[in-house]
């Protein structure tokens, strides 16, 4: 491995920190690395794996003002690139305005998710509730060859070089970015059209908006999605002709909100509602569908079938798990992050555009979340999804499950005791001929060996285990969202003789 330490970050976290989401598998990193020709410790890098895996995650640098929530940490991008049977690695903090301000101050300046906004040391801020730091630590997508990071409660989008992981500045959409509301966690890129769809939300009417950015990076569509009041949507989906948005019955308690307290409650007597709108439709074109009460954090895909729009995602049986008095104080405090406590299972909704009726069904009894598909099937009928399982009681991924939506069959793989992963991404094999003809890529942290690895699975045979395992420069923090971008979609990738030259080395 050709290794260089290129950055050392200022952290004021105490050495005796005991917060489980700032220590152990979630211990933040303070080093930025350039590593080429990664050491292969098992198997070999497939010669037909070509492109980059990018992962974003929370990486806190300073103690919170009062109560730290795992979503408060600053964004850090990890890149593992594959080409010519070799692999390289980069990691960089996302240089957001909030990160730079707190690094200069040497402390936290904004209130986090588990804190009242009034305790913030600055009056400005981002997020639907304001006075928060835009950590840009949620998702990462690639649009027009550039990676874009997002903030879960609406903020700026930061442009990231997908080779070096360096921050390139804020996205502006040629001067039309909605900086007043920002963009929410999960914009969707349609590989077929080059369009990116997004939504945002606010405490101000109409409470939600939806937009489309075209393949030239112009904001070409932006309309109101009126809601009954402030909501907390997190994800969306799309088909060839429609976008699907939602109004879930887990949102800030209205009475508490009058006191400027942001307390999320599941209003279990209210239905879940889904908005189906033509991809460039107007407010008047929205069709609303009601379904069983739940909260959905993530969807896997949607498609059209006859008169129906079909949507798949993770139904939460108990979005607001009660404190049952078991487990440590931390398990009890963060029970809302544990997939097994919320009972998240893959689910299917069918919205009939002719009758206005909804049909729904559970697809599996397996508890899982953070699902990905082969991106080239986005918006059209897919068969396979690849999800993460969790360590009971914790926000830690301990394995993967491949689900066949056509037959219900599943394959699983456990990382093993003390080993935790990130959201996987599906990388189609160069010249692939079928939906699961490719690889699954993820990053794992092995607490037993105090080391981290990039692991590659054959997507058609997940249960066989990794076909390749590559050592990273140090043990990295546990992580969340990721994406895959094929080499052919990246600028400079195919015009240079080597991966090193392509990334400017």
UniProtKB/TrEMBL annotation:
Cofactor: how bound: Binds 1 Fe(2+) ion per subunit.
Keywords in alphabetical order: Dioxygenase, Iron, Metal-binding, Oxidoreductase
A family per Pfam: RPE65
Cofactor dependency: Fe(2+)
Coiled coil: none
Broad class of enzyme this protein falls into: oxidoreductase
InterPro entries: Carotenoid_Oase (IPR004294)
EC number of this enzyme: 1.13.11.-
Family from the record: Belongs to the carotenoid oxygenase family.
Protein name: Dioxygenase
């Amino acid at each position: 491995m050709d290794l260089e330490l290129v950055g050392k970050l200022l952290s004021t976290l105490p050495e005796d920190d005991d917060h489980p989401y700032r220590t152990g598998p979630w211990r933040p990193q303070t080093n930025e690395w350039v590593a080429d020709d990664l050491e292969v410790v098992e198997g070999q890098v497939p010669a037909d794996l070509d492109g980059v895996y990018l992962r974003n995650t929370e990486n806190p640098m300073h103690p919170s003002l009062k109560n730290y929530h795992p979503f408060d940490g600053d964004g850090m991008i990890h890149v593992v690139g594959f080409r010519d049977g070799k692999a390289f690695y980069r990691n960089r903090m996302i240089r957001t305005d909030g990160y730079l301000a707190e690094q200069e101050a040497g402390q936290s300046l904004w209130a986090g998710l588990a804190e009242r906004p009034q305790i913030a040391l600055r009056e400005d801020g981002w997020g639907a509730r304001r006075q928060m730091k835009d950590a840009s630590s949620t998702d990462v997508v690639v649009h027009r060859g550039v990676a874009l990071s997002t903030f879960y409660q609406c903020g700026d989008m930061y442009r990231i070089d997908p080779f070096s992981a360096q921050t390139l500045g804020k996205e502006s959409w040629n001067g039309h970015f909605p900086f007043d509301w920002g963009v929410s966690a999960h914009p969707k890129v349609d590989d077929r059209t080059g369009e990116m769809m997004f939504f945002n939300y606010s405490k101000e009417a109409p409470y939600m908006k939806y937009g489309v950015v075209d393949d030239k990076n112009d904001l070409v569509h932006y309309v109101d999605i009126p809601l009954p009041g402030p909501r907390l949507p997190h994800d969306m989906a799309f088909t060839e002709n429609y976008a699907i948005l939602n109004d879930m019955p887990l949102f800030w308690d209205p009475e508490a909100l009058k006191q400027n307290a942001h307390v999320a409650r599941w209003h279990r007597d209210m239905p879940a509602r889904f908005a189906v709108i033509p991809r460039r439709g107007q407010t008047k074109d929205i069709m609303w569908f009601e379904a069983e009460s739940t909260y959905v954090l993530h969807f896997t895909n949607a498609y059209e079938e006859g008169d129906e729009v079909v949507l798949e995602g993770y139904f939460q049986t108990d979005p607001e798990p009660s404190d049952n008095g078991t487990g440590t104080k931390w398990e009890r405090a963060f029970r809302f992050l544990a997939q097994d406590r919320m009972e998240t299972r893959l689910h299917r909704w069918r919205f009939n555009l002719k009758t206005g009726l909804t049909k729904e069904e559970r697809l599996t009894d397996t508890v899982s979340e953070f699902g990905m598909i082969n991106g080239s099937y986005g918006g059209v009928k897919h068969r396979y999804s690849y999800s993460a399982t969790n360590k009971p009681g914790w926000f830690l991924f301990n394995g993967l499950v491949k689900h066949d939506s056509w037959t219900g069959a599943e394959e699983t793989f456990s990382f093993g005791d003390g080993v935790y992963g990130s959201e996987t991404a599906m990388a189609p094999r160069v010249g692939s001929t079928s939906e699961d003809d490719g690889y699954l890529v993820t990053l794992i942290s092995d607490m037993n060996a105090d080391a981290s690895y990039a692991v590659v699975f054959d997507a058609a045979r997940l249960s066989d285990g990794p076909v390749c395992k590559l050592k990273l420069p140090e043990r990295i923090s546990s992580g969340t969202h990721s994406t895959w971008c094929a080499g052919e979609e990246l600028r400079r990738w195919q015009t240079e003789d080597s991966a090193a030259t392509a990334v400017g080395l």
